[in-house]
């Protein structure tokens, strides 16, 4: 899978590059909140910030965690009314949040969530449903995928987008596929009544814009998954959205769905950002439902892959996915919910019939008009910066900065 030496990857990451777009197409007109690492002050630490035309403002004195801010009665109005300490210009922050361009004496973007659990919905698009069935039938072997693809499509068709999961029509298709011996656990969650919702990453483990995104070194068939991610507060209200990369290790999950944790939850394997766009008069669920997410993978080998994730093609409404996440569980600190993707690359990269897989140093850019751009460079999970800043470190840092006195988390 990897044609680059570690030294070459490091050199590629250091190479200068044109600035990548991070802001939405309408710039700073929306209500944009995020988290940054703020090295200013006696004790450096993560800060909840608002991005405004006047600059980046630290709101941590009032809202020490993003969870706290999103739990207010009207987060967008609260953000617009909040005063804060000026940290830097927006341009300075974004320039220091580009892959390979970090100056640790200045602020940079973190994943925009903190105390929220990171959940993910799977198999929510017909195209990805078909690819999951192929992974399962291939037992994780990429070389078998092309032959199986024509067989599977011949039996179940390509266009399942109009089929409502759990409907009588879907149940008739389920019975037909069972008769043909093609039934799959992925078809169960793709067209059955129950959505697949799993925990993608531990609290505070997600990486932000500019960080390395991790794939396991023992995976030889993998791809990015560009997705819209909802921000949901403790009351189950959807209050905003961001972008995410739900990295998929196709060979590992394809061997067995019971390996989902090994395929999905690894060091640096969950990227979120660049910030959360809060719901306000200009942006809400209708924009989420109709958003188009663009993907570009640019390899150091000159390879380029492009794709789109069109939210209008989703088979389960975002509100249904949130309701199913909340059906038998509570989230007192809120949660982030990946909505799934229809993107499943099948273009050959290294060899005919081998399909697409990442190489070290790939620059993955996920972009949308309303939510901006999330940019990460691919590294091995084992070699990416280790996750050290957990809940004890976070609480200790907030205490050292005097942010736990008289404020609710």
From TrEMBL:
Keywords: Hydrolase, Metal-binding. One of its GO terms (molecular function) is hydrolase activity. It comes from the Bacteria. Gene3D superfamilies: Fumarylacetoacetase-like, C-terminal domain. InterPro entries: FAH, Fumarylacetoacetase_C_sf. Belongs to the FAH family. This is Fumarylacetoacetate hydrolase family protein. It comes from Acidovorax benzenivorans. The lineage of its organism: Bacteria, Pseudomonadati, Pseudomonadota, Betaproteobacteria, Burkholderiales.
């Amino acid at each position: 899978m990897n044609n680059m030496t570690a030294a070459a990857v490091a050199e590629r990451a250091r190479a200068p590059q044109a600035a990548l777009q991070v802001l939405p197409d309408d710039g700073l007109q929306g209500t944009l909140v995020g988290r940054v690492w703020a090295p200013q002050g006696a004790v450096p630490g993560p800060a909840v910030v608002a991005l405004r035309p006047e600059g980046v403002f630290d709101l941590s004195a009032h809202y020490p965690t993003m969870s706290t801010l999103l739990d207010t009665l009207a987060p967008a109005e609260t953000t617009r009314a909040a005063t804060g300490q000026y940290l830097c210009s927006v341009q300075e922050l974004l320039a220091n949040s580009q892959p390979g361009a970090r100056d640790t004496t200045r602020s940079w973007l973190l994943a925009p969530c903190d105390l929220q659990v990171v959940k993910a919905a799977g198999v929510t698009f017909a195209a990805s449903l078909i690819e999951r069935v192929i992974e399962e039938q291939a037992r994780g072997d990429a070389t078998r995928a092309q032959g199986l693809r024509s067989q599977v499509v011949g039996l179940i068709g390509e266009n399942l987008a109009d089929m409502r999961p759990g409907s009588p029509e879907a149940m008739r298709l389920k019975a037909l596929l069972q008769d043909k011996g093609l039934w799959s656990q992925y078809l169960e969650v793709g067209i059955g009544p129950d959505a697949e919702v799993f925990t993608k990453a531990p609290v505070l483990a997600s990486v932000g814009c500019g960080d390395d995104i991790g794939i396991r070194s023992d995976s030889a068939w993998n791809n990015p998954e560009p997705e819209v991610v909802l921000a949901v507060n403790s009351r189950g209200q959807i209050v905003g959205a961001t972008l995410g990369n739900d990295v998929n290790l196709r060979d590992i999950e394809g061997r067995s769905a019971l390996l989902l944790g090994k395929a999905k939850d690894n060091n640096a394997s969950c990227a979120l950002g660049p910030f959360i766009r809060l719901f306000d008069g200009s942006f809400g669920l209708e924009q989420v439902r109709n958003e188009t997410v663009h993907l570009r993978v640019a390899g150091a080998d000159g390879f380029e892959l492009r794709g789109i994730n069109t939210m209008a093609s989703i088979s389960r409404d975002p509100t249904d996915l949130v309701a199913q996440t909340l059906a038998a569980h509570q989230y007192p600190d809120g949660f982030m919910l990946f909505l799934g993707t229809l993107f499943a690359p099948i273009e050959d990269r290294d060899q005919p019939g081998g399909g697409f897989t990442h190489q070290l140093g790939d620059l993955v850019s996920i972009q949308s008009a309303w939510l901006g751009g999330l940019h990460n460079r691919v590294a091995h999970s084992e070699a990416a910066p280790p996750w050290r800043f957990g809940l004890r470190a976070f609480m200790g840092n907030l205490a050292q900065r005097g942010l736990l006195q008289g404020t609710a988390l």
